[in-house]
Amino acid sequence: MRQPKPTAVPPPMRRRKRSFDGLAFNISAVITPAFLRMASIIVLAVNTIAALDLRQGYGRHADGDESVWTELDPLPDPVGYAGMFCGTLNGKLIAGGGSQFHDRPVWHDGEKVFSDRIFTLASAKAKWNESPQRLPLKVAHFASAVTDDAIYLVGGVNASGCLASAIRITADGDELIFSELPSLPRPLGYAAAAVVDDRLYVVGGLPAVGAKQASRETWSLNLSPQREPLAWRREPDLPGPGVHVACTAADQGRVYLIGGIGFDPQGAPIPSAAVYCLKIGAQKWEVLPPLPAPRVGAVSPCAVVNGQICVIGGYADVFPGLPREHPGFCQETFIYDLKQKSWRAGMSLPVTPIVDRDAPGDSGPKPMIAAPCCIWESNVVIVGGEVRSSVRTPTVLAAPIESLLKSTLR
Fold first, then answer.
1. What is the mean pLDDT of residues 47-59?
2. Transmembrane segments in this chain: where (predicted)?
3. Those residues with Cβ within 8 angstroms of residue 6's Cβ, 6 or more apart along the chain or in another chain
4. Separation between Cα atoms, residue 95 and residue 85, nearest integer Å
5. pLDDT reported for residue 225
6. Is there a contact between 311 and 258 (Cβ–Cβ < 8 Å)?
7. In angstroms, rounded to a whole number, what is the distance separating the alpha carbons of residues 8 and 377?
8. Of 62, 112, 172, 267, most Cβ neighbours within 10 A?
9. Which domains are assigned to the chain?
């Protein structure tokens, strides 16, 4: 973990006397180096509390909620990545792709770069290994979906803009196999994906980087060529405005789309609390009870455990201040009970004080956006992500599945 920079101690102050309520005291006798060190600690604590109050979360949690999270070995990159994928193949955790500002953040004119690196983790107690293999291209912020034996990446963003490509990643022993799938009908970045009944669904997204109108479209791709040719098929559009950086879940022949962010007619961003469900074969999306608060960029795909969808990370409001002063994202998580069709509060994400606001990475742990999620070794695992404006983290968090189900509304 990056250590705090030592507090600079100013030269001794010139002695002078001041009176306050008739009492005279010597300023230099009070403002000693030890006093200044203590003051800096107090200021750091106050700033941390203020930042927590500014977080776009809603509600309070009992003390100790964060203790259910543990840190696995961090990614072998000091900055970390956002917009990665993760999944399991042959029992190993696989993660790769992503974007970062590798040498300085955006407010210091840092440049966003994209990755084709792939990392593997053999067990929860192991160290990450970097695979000698690479993705077919450097890419991040794709629509990602996982099954028991494959990882799907659709669209995404790189230095050339939004992409339409689609690939399937499988494993043959320790070797990764990359299979090209039919390209999307048009480029899409920041979309969301899920696999249900051998069909790959892609929802929402942006047609171009910087676009001010998000997609309402839903597309699906048959993954069983013996049933029908591999080709994208248009599915029912979302009933509300288009969104991007939403999160998805899949369960019992249904696709769920949760949160995200869209735009008003003037192009201003509007965080979404909407929740939609598409039953396979249905002619329209069902509108479900909304989130207790909007969630933009929550980890995706969402973990689904015993009929409950876990919405973790993200934010509720667009931070109005300067990027350098960004306080971070939501600690609070939400759980949706599919049977009861109701929301409740989940466990809090852990948060640590900001050590260096001008660093491009933060060792955390902290609430995140744009991070992938999967279930592995009876844990919900979240890899990397963005923890403040343009700042990435290499942190890998894990929480036991049963901990999610014990959370209750407070």
1. 36
2. 23-46
3. none
4. 5
5. 76
6. yes
7. 46
8. 112
9. 70-405 (2.120.10.80)
